[in-house]
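# step 3/5: fold
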Amino acid sequence: MMEALVSGVPASKHFKSLMEADELMDAGKLGDMLTFEFPNISPAASMAIRKWLSPGKEYEVSDEDVDALISHYLKESGYML
């Protein structure tokens, strides 16, 4: 399900489509799916998703920020060039 991320689909767009398709999808499940499909990705990627979906807490992560962060972590772990 997460292969779209390495094809260039922005993380925020892909995550939103997954959440629209499954009303039980939340930040924890998205993070679990991401780390299951990309086991070498930094745990910080899951944290970025949680921060993105929990606005108003310590600080907010915008769509653009989560896109950049997930892309960075995928590149850092060798899943994207």
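# step 4/5: annotate
Residues 3-76 form one domain.
# step 5/5: archive (pending)
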